[in-house]
Amino acid sequence: MFAYYLKLALRSLRRNPVLTALMVLSIAVGIGTAMTSLTVFHVLSADPLPGKSDRLFYVQTDPRPLGSYQPGDEPSSQMTRYDAETLLAQAHGKRQAMMSAGATAVEPDTPSQDPFFAQARFTSSDFFPMFDVPMAQGHAWTQQDDKDHARVAVISTALANKLYGASPAVGRTLTLDGNGFRVAGVLGAWSPNPRFYDLTNQQYGDVEDVFIPFTTSRDLRMAASGSLSCWGSATGDPEGDYGHDAPCAWVQYWVELASPAQTDDYRAYLRNYADQQRAAGRYQRPANVRLYDVNAWLYHNHVVPEDVRLQVWLALSFLLVCLLNTVGLMLARFLRRSGEIGVRRALGASRAEIFKQCLVEAGITGLVGGVIGLILTAIGLWLVRHQPDDYARLAHLDWSMLGLTFALALLASLLAGLFPAWRAMQIAPAIQLKTQ
User: Fold this and answer.
1) Residues 67 and 27 placed together within one structural domain of the fold
2) Is 63 helix (H, G, I), strand (E, B) or coil?
3) Which of 216, 315, 320, 326 has the greatest number of CB atoms lying within 10 Å of its CB?
4) Residue 129 and residue 96 in one domain
5) pLDDT recorded at residue 57
């Protein structure tokens, strides 16, 4: 029977091309608008480290002065160098990494290439296994390299290609800020978005081109970048606000914990650490610590902009308006065929069969509208990618959103066809036959 209903639906759609075009266009515009907004939201709210994000935690302590402290206040968003290095040395988690963004001057070996600046990340060795960073060449440095303040570096594939072309980069000497570094590894394909590991710099975009040990970066006084919050002066420290004992928060700290029990244990460990620091006079506030897993940290920092959330609701509201318009058009279409429906009823078709026939016609209308809506979505995403926002270039359809486009179009058209189909199946055959 489905093939028969399909044949009737296609014949009916060809019979009234203008009305058919209006219904298809109404669904297509609604789907295109909704899917453009939903795709942007999907990209921005995606889990950047699926399968592991619930085991990685951003650590916060609160070394700031008492000031206007109120119980329940949010701790400092970053950590002091002293606290980060102390926690790293105590290594209470499965893995832990301290880090900061920075910049460095790259001096190519080739005389034809001019020096240039590259974005850098100063971190510790667990950064790579903790965040599942793949290596295209070589390997990351070791914990012993951290302790030895080794001059080693891991670089991005883009930088390796720029400096060395197709030649192997591992083992080469890379000059950064006038200092030689041995290239230990080259990153593979790794571009988490949002850039969850450091939300103080750039929330969306490419990863850094150069990674070097944090200890080495401080030996060489390499320029750190990002948010810096100080509540005192670092007098007598040659590194100023970035010194070991400086009262400044500028370091991000992550820990990997294997189970909920280990998470509870680590939270208790942080509270004990804060109490110890308060007893030593470094902390003034009562123990105020936080552990956020990756997705909770993204939500806490409002990584998905509020205007994107608002656009989703507006787009879905517009889709609803389009569906209401489609309901009216379908109702007019089905009721105009009262005579045909009455004849079918008189020949023995049940109300349920009439209802099914109308829904098949609505479904075909939705699928055609979905195809056109997909084209409109592609155009909408193309326009989004030309916006100045840092997340704009990420606005692309993936397979899941492609499937959702057709599923939403089909569901929307079937919902829009429910009331018109119900009204059509109520048509009394006797009255229609008398009017013919």
Assistant:
1) no
2) coil
3) 326
4) yes
5) 97
**Is there a single domain that holds both residue 94 and residue 231?**
yes
Q: What is the pLDDT of residue 153?
A: 96
* Opening angle at CA 251, ends 237 and 281, nearest 5: 60
Q: Are 268 and 291 in contact (CB under 8 A)?
A: no
- Select from 248, 202, 252, 253 the least CA-distant residue to 228: 248
Residue that the structure tokens 């850094």 belong to: 208
Instruction: Read off the tokens for 425.
Output: 């199946």
Q: 10-24, 59-73, 292-306: lowest mean pLDDT where?
A: 10-24
Are 290 and 364 part of one and the same domain?
no
Scanning the structure block, which residue is given the tokens 């552990």?
Answer: 291
Are 345 and 229 members of one domain? no
Same domain? 256 vs 326: no
Answer for the pair 44, 340: CB distance below 8 angstroms, yes or no.
no
Reduced to 3 DSSP states, what percent helix, strand and coil does the chain have, rounded to the nearest 5? Answer: 50, 15, 35
Angle, CA of 231, 233 and 237, to the nearest 5°: 135
What are 247-273's pLDDT values in tens digits? 999 999 999 999 999 999 999 999 999
Give the residue from 144, 129, 141, 143 showing the smallest Cα distance to 55.
Answer: 129
Residues 219 and 314 in one domain: no
Tokens of 341: 């429906």
Range name among 142-151, 250-259, 280-289, 343-352 with the lowest pLDDT average: 343-352
Among 235-244, 399-408, 412-421, name the most confident range: 399-408
Start-to-end CA distance of the chain, whole Å, equals 27
Specify which residues 154 forms β-bridges with. Answer: 185, 211
Domain count, the chain: 2
CA 307 to each of CA 34, 204, 350: distance values in angstroms, whole numbers, following the listed order? 15, 16, 50
147: CB partners within 8 A, 6+ apart: 215
* Residue 107 burial by Cβ neighbours in a 10 Å radius (0-12, 13-18, 19+): middle
113 against 120, higher pLDDT? 120
Considering the domain architecture, whether residues 141 and 242 belong to the same structural domain is answered as: yes
- The parent domain of residue 366 ranges over 2-45+305-435
Among 274, 300, 326, the domain boundary falls at: 300
Whether residue 87 is predicted with pLDDT greater than 70 in this model: the reply is: yes
